[in-house]
Design brief:
Oligomer: single chain
Structural class: alpha+beta
CATH superfamily of the largest domain: Alpha-L RNA-binding motif
Number of helices: 4
Distance between the termini: 18 Å
Mean pLDDT: 92
Number of strands: 13
Helix content: 10-25%
CATH topology of the largest domain: Alpha-Beta Plaits
Low-confidence stretches: none
Strand content: 25-35%
Radius of gyration: 16 Å
């Protein structure tokens, strides 16, 4: 079984509670035998997969498969074409160059407001960047956008392979059908 979960902001991608008051996956009524395939940071939102089928861990996460994941990042400032070109070519984070990715400026996607809201400053605009990556280093998108001068304020994973988060409200999950499972590897 593979489950798609729309992870809200402020939820840890684990089942065990390490500190009181932190929300974890245990708060969302998942079947007992599933575990997360990958992770999203506490302050990131969006598509997280869970499964009880071990082979999916390798298929979706091992670098040899170059499996694409799509993110929408709301960044501080108006992202420039120069910054997008740098992101596409790869940037240095933590002393290593990221693999080339696809990056483009997108219109504001109209996501529901986050709770708590992102920091808002009248004198500094924000913009949205879509990034399609085939690697998943710790806090990679945030480090990449910061490296080109546009710190991430809000980060949402919208797609894994060709499977989209569309229609799944934050904090809800569903089991994937056979056709949806196929989209994960396309």
């Amino acid at each position: 079984m593979i489950l798609a979960f729309h992870k809200p902001y402020g939820v840890l991608s684990q089942f065990m509670k390490k500190e009181p008051g932190h929300r974890t996956l245990a708060d969302f009524g998942f079947p007992k035998e599933v575990y997360p395939l990958g992770r999203l940071d506490w302050d990131s939102e969006g598509l997280l997969l869970l499964s009880n089928e071990k082979e999916w861990n390798d298929r979706l996460l091992h670098p040899r498969h170059a499996h694409e994941r799509t993110y929408h990042a709301q960044v501080e400032g108006t992202a420039t074409e120069e910054a997008l070109v740098q992101l596409r070519k790869g940037v240095i984070i933590q002393g290593k160059k990221t693999k080339p990715c696809r990056a483009r400026l997108i219109a504001e996607p109209g996501y529901p407001p986050r709770h708590p809201p992102i920091r808002f400053r009248l004198s500094v605009p924000t913009s949205w960047i879509e990034l399609k990556l085939i690697e998943g280093k710790n806090r990679q998108v945030r480090r990449m956008t910061a490296a080109v001068g546009f710190p991430t304020l809000r980060l949402i994973r919208t797609m894994i392979g060709s499977f989209e988060l569309d229609g799944l409200r934050a904090g809800t999950w569903c089991e994937l059908s056979a056709s949806q499972r196929e989209l994960l590897t396309k």
